[in-house]
Amino acid sequence: MQMKVTVDILVLGAGWTSTFLTDLCQERGVSYATTTRSGRDSTIKFTFDPASDEMEPYRVLPDAEVVLITFPIVQRGASERLVKLYTDSHRREGLTTKFIQLGSTGMWDGPRLAAKLGGPSQVNQHQWYDRHSPYTSTPRSDAEDELLALSPTFPTTILNLAGLWGGTRQPRNWVARVAPTKEVLESKGSLHLIHGIDIARAILAIHNDFSKAQGQRWILTDGRVYDWWDLASAWGSAPSAPTKSAQEAERHAIGSPSSPASAIGLSSQQHKATEVEEDRGPQPAWVRELMQDHGIRGLPRDVQSLGRALDSRDFWLTFGLNPWMTLFS
Which of 4, 5, 329, 52 shows the shortest CA–CA distance to 197? Predict the structure, then answer.
């Protein structure tokens, strides 16, 4: 009879996060296995049914030191069901599997959640929030609390992630969608981010010393509070069609007597600057107008103007790490 292989990390739900995690695991010699609903790309075919007590689907999964749950769980009792069904189907002497659930920091954004859930409107609190701050109860946060309550019998921890970026997820490309009008941009405050590489580093840090994380909830950001006005001013929105290179623009401005630059007496440098400004969309101009309207002298704005600010220092200090990737890296 072939013995079942034990992996360091079992990822339930291979997706965007797992692309960064598996690369780092390979680099560091950490063994892993991943699942998808379809079993694509050499993953294990597995579908979590939150209402089923059937153990058989779990038997195809390998033994693991750590199980990483990447998908949200929102049904009451489902978190406990997953942990117990996996554990009961993988009983082996000397193996105590630990569980990490990836969550969201949206639970500390009361006004947005109230609007989303159809509850009474809430005033945005202009203040700092850390992992111990009160949060708005949602089905997802309740399921996370249920998971944490299983410790210490079943070692568990929660990583509440800020906005995900890296790879195909580039914040620079979000401006047009986030701020399509001046009125919408006016309402935008803070943005918190975490890069996929730093998520992977955080997961492996917990794997290496789970006792530091056990039974606790953590906020994970890159340690910065970005201002949407600042980003919209610096980036603008991406052009809807490919633009000419600076060299082509210069040739057009100088070489054609009927070009717009020559027609109005602009220098080639002035013409290029005009093209660049137009290519960045209207957001930079809106920001200047909003700063004038609200008496904002410089960017980024302070927390009193931004709304919520997330403090993720606890995680990085506890595990002796620093974020690698920020928008300024």
Answer: 329
According to DSSP, the β-strands at 156-161 and 226-227 are unpaired
**284 domain-assigned:** no
pTM value is 0.85
For 232-252, the pLDDT digits (tens) are: 999 999 654 333 333 343 333
138: Cα within 13 Å, side-chain hemisphere: 24
256 lies in some domain: no
Say how many domains are in the chain: 1
Host domain of residue 220? 6-178+192-225+308-319
Instruction: Identify whether the C-beta of residue 131 lies closer than 8 Å to the C-beta of residue 317.
Output: no
With respect to residue 253, please indicate whether it lies within any of the assigned structural domains. no
Q: What is the DSSP letter of 105?
A: G
pLDDT band at 279 (very low <50, low <70, confident <90, very high): confident
Q: 157: which strand partners?
A: 100
Of the candidates 56, 64, 57, 70, which has an alpha carbon nearest to the alpha carbon of residue 19?
70
What CATH number corresponds to the domain at position 92? 3.40.50.720
Residues contacting residue 67 through CB under 8 Å, at least 6 positions apart: 9, 10, 12, 86, 97, 98, 99, 100
